[in-house]
Give the backbone structure.
Amino acid sequence: MNKSQEIQSIIAQRQPLAPKVADIETGLSSLYGLIQSCEQEGDRSYLSNG
């Protein structure tokens, strides 16, 4: 197998991972937004009770 074929093989193996990585990235972004919202709510609660 020459270098070009080896590279093509690696690309072919990794291409199916791209959509999975994109889905994971979207999920993590969503979770980050939820965490920020929770932190802001906690800050508001602390300030109003403190």
Summary: The chain has a mean pLDDT of 93. Residues 4 and 14 are 16 Å apart (CA to CA). DSSP finds two helices and no strands in the chain. The longest helix spans residues 17-49.
